Amino acid sequence: MRIAVISDIHSNIHALEAVEKDIREKRADKIFCLGDIINFGAHPKETLDWVKENCDITIKGEHDIFVSNPEEVFLTNPYAIQAADWTYDQLSKEDFDYINSLENFYEEAEFILTHDEPSIPGTYHFLTSLRDAKETFTCFDNRFCFYGHAHLQILFVKDEDNVFSEKTGRYKIKENQQFLICAGSVGQPRDRDPRAGYTLVDTEENFIEFRRVEYDFEKAAADIINAGLPEVFSNILKMKKD
């Protein structure tokens, strides 16, 4: 099976449509969404509708929860709160019903889907270090654990008692290995690469591939400004490596 894993879309329909095209070209059988569908960007309704129509399994992130039920998540970032207030006004009761119907954790025999730290979902810890990965591997037996939240593409591999971080864009899966996979961000990547990011996993051809997709990030950034949303979210889309 070939699975496309998307996360942290953050109301960026321009990035999402470009990723959709790439997913179709790569002939993915399933699409999993790891949450933070909305907030920050200018097109929350469109992104929610796309996820409802196209994703086979969807879980929610803290920004989805905060927009629909702010008392359930504690956010301190004033820009995120401002954007959430604007986002709330763009959505309908049906949209909120859909968000509230989503779980924040999903598990099958072969894989786990979580938005954040899988050992204690809901803490919204940024799992980016090898030390944290080693601890987290002790908390699950499934072969794959997909997570988001960090807005980065990160692959940790457990091979018997050895845990390491794999830096290649495409990794060949070997037998008896376990994987912690941060899928990256479709709509707000934080690695100074403005291209949209997602992850492709093929359990028959046995590979994990981090995909990056070109899209009109200038248009997405302009839409944020034109909507009156905080400029910081527009600026992030345009950040590039020096």
UniProtKB/TrEMBL annotation:
Entries under Gene3D superfamilies matching the protein: 3.60.21.10
InterPro entries linked: Ap4A_hydrolase (IPR050126), Calcineurin-like_PHP_lpxH (IPR024654), Metallo-depent_PP-like (IPR029052), Pesterase_MJ0912 (IPR011152)
Pfam families: Metallophos_2 (PF12850)
GO molecular function, one term: phosphatase activity
Domain Calcineurin-like phosphoesterase: 1-205
CDD domains: MPP_superfamily
One cellular-component annotation, GO: cytoplasm
Family under the similarity heading: Belongs to the metallophosphoesterase superfamily. YfcE family.
Protein name according to UniProt: Predicted phosphodiesterase
Lineage of the species this protein comes from: Bacteria, Pseudomonadati, Aquificota, Aquificia, Aquificales
